[in-house]
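re: the backbone from monday

yeah here it is again, tokenized this time
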């Protein structure tokens, strides 16, 4: 069967907004790029399969904020926007159970919580937590919230602040967000995104500024993280610039990107300890592999490139985790987010 992916983009050069692309599994090729919605800088998306909604960050005229759209229609209908943020958020997550929406604002250094009403199609702002501080890297003169999402059991909300080397654990209360814990990375690391193991009490934190993955134990009872290991996504004289991180459904392999020299890393995951073992480093065949995602059957990985305007399609060996190139020249402009729809 074919599989559809949504693409979030920058609109700094040639992109017009949100696109979709189809993975044809018979031909093992990407095809049918469609401009789904014209919107400025929809750099991150969140897809709700059951509610058939697509959420996007973006900009409308001089206002920045978030939008929701009926994903059953293609091209997408006009986005309904709630614009209240001083800069376009860099991450968005919709919770289908509670209909809460979380956003991370890199430039503003804050996390924001909304509630979305499906009937009225309106957003209500619930809470906003503004961080303070700085760190040692030139890109850390102020807080830069880059990620916010739920733990697998949805007991806690996790926030990565790249600017102050801190991972926050929040609790959702009736009033909004209550901080319960902090985890500090090594100074200058720049924690970017987090991915949880599907079975073990382990999380994997990719750090942007030193291009590392931290293996963290995760206490489900109190939301506290503890470091178990730290692995570099570089060799000597290679540029550090961590990107995306994803884990297979069975928790046997982890994939990560380094935008410093345009590569995808494969690690096997120890079934008992959750520790990582390097398997492969492969060229991403494009410039700035900002994001990627596995297909629903996990036989393929689609990689989006921010600067070379192309998608790369890899075939994945499920036994070894290794990737092999299928397609490298499929046009898609300024891609920074790849979201599957199944």
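seq for it, each position gets an aa:
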């Amino acid at each position: 069967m074919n599989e559809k992916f949504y693409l979030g983009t920058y609109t700094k050069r040639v992109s017009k907004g949100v696109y979709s692309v189809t993975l044809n599994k018979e031909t093992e090729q990407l095809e049918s790029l469609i401009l789904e919605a014209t919107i400025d800088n929809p750099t991150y998306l969140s897809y709700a399969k059951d509610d058939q909604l697509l959420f996007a960050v973006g900009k409308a005229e001089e206002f920045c904020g978030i939008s929701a759209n009926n994903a059953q229609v293609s091209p997408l209908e006009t986005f309904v926007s709630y614009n209240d943020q001083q800069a376009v958020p860099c991450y968005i997550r919709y919770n289908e159970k509670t209909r809460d929406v979380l956003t991370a604002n890199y430039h503003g250094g804050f996390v924001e919580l909304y509630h979305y009403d499906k009937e009225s199609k309106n957003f209500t702002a619930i809470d906003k937590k503004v961080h303070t501080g700085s760190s040692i890297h030139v890109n850390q003169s102020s807080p830069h919230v880059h990620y916010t999402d739920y733990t697998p059991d949805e007991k806690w909300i996790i926030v990565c602040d790249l600017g102050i080397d801190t991972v926050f654990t929040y609790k959702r209360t009736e009033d909004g967000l209550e901080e319960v814990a902090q985890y500090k990375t090594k100074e200058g690391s720049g924690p970017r995104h987090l991915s949880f193991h599907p079975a073990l009490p382990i999380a994997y934190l990719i750090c942007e500024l030193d291009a590392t993955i931290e293996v963290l134990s995760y206490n489900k009872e109190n939301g506290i993280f503890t470091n178990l290991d730290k692995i570099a996504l570089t060799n000597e004289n290679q540029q550090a610039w961590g990107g995306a991180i994803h884990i297979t459904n069975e928790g046997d392999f982890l994939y990560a990107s380094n935008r410093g020299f345009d590569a995808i890393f494969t690690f096997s995951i120890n079934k008992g300890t959750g520790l990582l073992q390097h398997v492969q480093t492969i060229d991403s065949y494009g410039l700035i592999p900002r994001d990627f995602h596995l297909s629903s059957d996990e036989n393929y990985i689609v990689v989006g490139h921010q600067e070379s305007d192309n998608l790369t399609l890899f075939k994945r060996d499920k036994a070894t985790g290794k990737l092999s190139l299928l397609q490298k020249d499929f046009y898609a402009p300024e891609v920074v987010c790849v979201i599957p729809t199944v």
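The first strand starts at residue 3 and ends at 9. The radius of gyration is 19 Å.
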